[in-house]
User: Which sequence fits this backbone?
C-alpha cells in the first residue's frame, strides 16, 4: 500500500517528494509539501490519496479544509457522509481527497480545481464540516484524478483516504 502525506508549512521542507508555493488572497501563505512514504514525515502532515500528487501538475486553486486540533470527528459522522455525497452528486473537480491521521477520523479535505471550476470552490461541501481556506497552489503538486464510483464504507477498508478507487 502506497501512502502519501500532505502538510501546509511556512518554509520548504527537506526531503519532500513534491512542493509548491501557496498564496491566499494574493499574499504568500507558505508551501504545501507532499511525501510518498509509509512513515509520517512531519507532525503537521495528514494522509491523503496518493493519486492526487503529480509533480507535473499545473497550478491550481484548492479548497483546503483542516480540522481544528481539538476536533475528533469520525468518518461515519453524518456531516462527513453528506459532504461526500454532495461531492459525488456534482460535476467532478480535478481531484478530491480527504485527510486523515488514523483509520477512522476525518481530519480535513483538499478539493483541487482549475479554470472555470475554481468558482465552485466557494461552495465546497467539506467547508460545511470545518472552515475552508481558498489557496492558490503553484505547479508541481496536484494532478487530476477521475472521480470514484462511490464512497467506501469506513468500517471496512477505512485505512485509506477517500476517494479510493475500489472497495477493499
Assistant:
Amino acid at each position: 500500500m502506497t501512502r502519501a502525506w500532505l502538510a501546509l508549512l511556512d518554509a520548504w521542507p527537506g526531503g519532500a517528494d513534491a512542493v509548491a508555493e501557496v498564496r491566499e488572497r494574493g499574499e504568500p501563505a507558505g508551501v504545501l509539501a507532499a511525501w510518498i512514504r509509509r512513515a509520517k514525515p512531519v507532525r503537521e502532515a495528514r494522509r491523503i490519496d496518493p493519486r492526487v500528487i503529480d509533480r507535473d501538475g499545473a497550478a491550481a486553486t484548492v479548497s483546503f479544509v483542516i480540522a481544528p486540533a481539538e476536533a475528533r470527528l469520525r468518518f461515519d459522522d453524518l456531516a462527513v457522509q453528506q459532504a461526500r455525497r454532495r461531492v459525488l452528486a456534482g460535476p467532478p473537480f480535478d481531484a478530491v481527497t480527504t485527510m486523515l491521521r488514523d483509520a477512522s477520523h476525518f481530519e480535513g479535505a483538499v478539493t483541487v480545481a482549475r479554470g472555470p471550476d475554481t468558482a465552485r470552490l466557494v461552495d465546497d461541501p467539506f467547508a460545511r464540516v470545518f472552515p475552508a481556506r481558498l489557496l492558490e497552489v503553484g505547479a508541481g503538486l496536484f494532478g487530476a484524478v477521475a472521480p470514484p464510483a462511490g464512497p467506501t464504507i469506513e468500517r471496512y477498508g477505512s485505512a485509506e483516504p477517500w476517494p479510493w478507487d475500489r472497495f477493499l
